[in-house]
Structure to design on (695 residues):
């Protein structure tokens, strides 16, 4: 046996078998160095007359996460992945790839280019490029159909979904599925190839028959589900080209791939990928997280039920406390319904569903939380009620318990001050429905112990959430931005845009629902209560739109009353409520305003600029750590379209000069609302972008 190692690839030989091992932590991402190392290792083994078969496998948790996403948008460096794969595909000696853990994107394409594939049980494969605004760019769209058929390849590639080990074996993506270590599995497979027991084959020459009905159905589905995205449709075009001779198909695939590489959709989705991960880099990360084994949730309303469900889905025993005895059964039923829904959607197995039900206890006795490691308060949004509760918790809870409030606006410092253990108090702001929405704002109060911050992050990740660190202020990161976004849309309505035009413009931008549809869903009365709470501190120079209050005065609170901005009759799609339109028109007359015309672009520009300006203020005040954290908040908690990357990512696309110019122009109409944040001025002076701040 002889070894020939680089930092990222180990090469060894054993008898007539050569082995190439990918060794580039954390995920064996295939960047230029790894491509070159694999290419060189393969060339060397080809020229070694003692070698008759080559095994390619990976070290660490995974075979590989695919192409190095950090290289996207940079100039291509040779050897490119298609060049490396061509050499493997043309290999005079059979190459057997062993896949374990994960083989995504370019990693699966690499395996598809080789002559045999072995899967280790537990393997997941995918061509998830569409999720990054791309399509498989190294042969995946041509070689997968040749293994699994056109219709199955369309499904896998256009959705980017994961394929588990059983499906990979059943569809022929892997030739065999085994238990054990990748190196040994590779050796055994190579011996079998040499003995003729395992068939090493080249599938490129295979012809694929066109299937117009399958293609038409897939295109119609994509247009209905993701009308704004280019990548899935181009991926479909690429897969269709697999009916051509392979060289033509590969060339067509590469052209489409390079087109998408330059698209804003790709830039937005890749930014979203990294933003989701960047939030973990917090100043407290050196402090060791504490162990949380049991959770108590206080409050049996929608939020409490959702939070309890989220922890149960994460495998924690949960005590749900609902102070009103007659509502305890209802709270339990709510959690059970959520769990049932998760079971139906395939989010948990029958066994984990049963375990989650067993893990739930419901009570009206607050004293029963005495032994919980974490207590999450989710009662209604009232400071006196919250401070009263925290005083009681201080007396009841065991020393060393973590006390969390799910407040969405209130001062976590004041809540902490109600206890004698302010350093154990933290904000954990979940978003409704809490068992589905992925964002959790971790609100760090002045006295919060750093270990609780790392604990909150670890816990949130454990239950599948995206935690984002936020400082204490009214509305933290997300709701303070939401407030400005809503105000911008209300001012547009007041100034002459129709609410359905505003909703339609923002929906065309990519939001699932416009702000007025969302208000109807959330309940117009709820927003009115928040406005009433803030009325005393509202600056006199702030414009106030009464339209929503006047709609509430009619008893129209949105969906729950069948009427709000829209009419809901349960059967048809919501239609504009003429009564709401009349109220808006009458209010403009009262204010003596001639309605202005706004284009859809102008509507989006104003709403987005309001969000960006507030995001910049949150950064300037240290409420958010970095622009990418704000983007993560918007993407995972507020339905900001993922392919747009988030408001701060968009700010860089728009340009700081343009943003400042926009705000100054709008300020001519309303100098109180439209103020240029100092941070934008500083960025303009220093030639800085938000991306620079993320780096
Ligand atoms: N390139 C570069 N970095 C990557 C990466 C990739 N393909 N995949 C993951 N990473 C990085 C993450 O950013 C993270 O870095 P950080 O620690 O600095 O934040 C680190 O690796 C660990 O990743 P995760 O935190 O996500 O680790 P998990 O264990 O939770 O998940 C994973 C691992 C399932 C592999 C997940 O990271 C993932 O899904 N990665 C993306 C896979 C993907 O989309 N591949 C396709 C790439 S496109 C392609 O191959 C084009 C081709 O067709 C030419």
């Amino acid at each position: 046996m002889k070894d020939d190692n680089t930092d990222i690839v180990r090469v060894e030989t054993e008898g007539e078998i050569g082995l190439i091992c990918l060794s580039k932590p954390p995920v064996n991402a295939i960047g230029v160095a790894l491509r070159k190392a694999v290419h060189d290792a393969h060339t060397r083994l080809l020229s070694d007359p003692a070698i008759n078969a080559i095994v390619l496998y990976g070290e660490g948790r995974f075979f590989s996460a695919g192409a190095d996403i950090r290289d996207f948008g940079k100039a291509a460096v040779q050897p490119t992945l298609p060049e490396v794969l061509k050499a493997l595909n043309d290999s005079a000696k059979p190459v057997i790839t062993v896949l374990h853990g994960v083989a995504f994107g370019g990693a699966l394409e690499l395996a598809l280019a080789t002559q045999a594939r072995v899967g280790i049980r537990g393997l997941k494969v995918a061509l998830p490029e569409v999720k990054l605004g791309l399509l498989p760019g190294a042969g995946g769209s041509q070689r997968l159909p040749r293994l699994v058929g056109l219709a199955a390849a369309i499904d896998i590639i256009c959705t980017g979904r994961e394929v588990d080990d059983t499906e990979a074996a059943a569809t022929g993506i892997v030739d065999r599925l085994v238990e054990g270590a990748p190196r040994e599995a590779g050796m055994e497979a190579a011996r079998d190839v040499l003995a003729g027991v395992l068939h090493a084959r080249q599938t490129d020459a295979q012809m694929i028959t066109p299937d117009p009905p399958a293609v038409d159905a897939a295109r119609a589905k994509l247009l209905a589900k993701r009308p704004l995205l280019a990548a899935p449709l181009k991926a479909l075009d690429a897969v269709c080209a697999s009916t051509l001779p392979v060289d033509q198909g590969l060339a067509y695939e590469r052209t489409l791939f390079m087109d998408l590489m330059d698209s804003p959709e790709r830039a937005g989705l890749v930014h979203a990928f990294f933003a989701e991960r960047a939030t973990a880099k917090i100043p407290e990360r050196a402090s060791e997280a504490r162990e949380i084994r049991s959770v108590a949730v206080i409050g049996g309303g929608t939020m409490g039920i959702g939070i309890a469900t989220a922890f149960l889905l994460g495998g924690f025993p949960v005590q749900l406390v609902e102070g009103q005895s007659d509502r305890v059964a209802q709270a339990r039923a709510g959690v059970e319904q959520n769990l049932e829904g998760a079971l139906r959607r395939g989010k948990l197995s029958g066994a984990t569903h049963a375990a989650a039900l067993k893990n739930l206890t419901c009570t009206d006795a607050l004293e029963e939380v005495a032994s919980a490691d974490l207590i999450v308060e989710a009662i209604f949004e009232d400071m006196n009620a919250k401070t009263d509760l925290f005083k009681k918790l201080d007396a009841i809870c065991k020393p060393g318990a973590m006390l969390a409030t799910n407040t969405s606006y209130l001062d976590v410092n004041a809540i902490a001050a109600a206890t004698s253990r302010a350093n154990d108090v933290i904000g954990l702001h979940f978003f409704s429905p809490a068992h589905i929405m992925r964002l959790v704002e971790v609100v760090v109060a002045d006295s919060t112990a750093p270990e609780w911050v790392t604990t909150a992050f670890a816990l949130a990740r454990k239950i599948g959430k995206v935690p984002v660190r936020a400082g204490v202020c009214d509305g933290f990161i997300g709701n303070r931005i939401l407030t400005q976004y809503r105000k911008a849309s209300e001012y547009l309505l007041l100034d002459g845009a129709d609410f359905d035009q505003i909703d339609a413009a923002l929906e065309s931008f990519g939001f699932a629902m416009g702000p007025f549809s969302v208000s109807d869903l959330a309940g117009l009365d709820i927003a009115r209560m928040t406005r009433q709470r803030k009325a005393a501190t509202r600056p006199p120079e702030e414009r106030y739109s009464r339209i929503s209050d006047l709609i509430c005065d009619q008893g129209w609170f949105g969906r729950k009353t069948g009427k709000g901005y829209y009419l809901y009759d349960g059967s048809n799609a919501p239609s504009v409520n003429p009564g709401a339109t009349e109220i808006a028109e009458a209010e403009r007359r009262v204010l003596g305003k001639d309605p202005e015309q706004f284009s859809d672009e102008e509507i989006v520009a104003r709403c987005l600029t309001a969000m960006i300006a507030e995001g910049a203020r949150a950064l300037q005040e240290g409420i958010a750590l970095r622009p990418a954290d704000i983007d993560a908040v918007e993407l995972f908690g507020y339905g900001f379209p993922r392919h747009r990357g988030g408001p701060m990512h968009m700010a860089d696309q728009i340009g700081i000069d343009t943003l400042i110019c926009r705000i100054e122009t709008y300020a001519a109409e309303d100098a109180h609302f439209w103020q240029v944040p100092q941070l934008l001025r500083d960025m303009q002076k220093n030639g800085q972008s938000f991306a620079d701040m993320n780096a």
Remarks:
- The radius of gyration is 28 Å.
- Residues 26-27, 29, 62, 65-70, 81, 102, 104-106, 109, 128-129, 132, 134, 136-138, 140, 277 surround 3-hydroxybutanoyl-coenzyme A (CB under 6 Å).
- Residues 600-620 form the longest helix (21 residues).
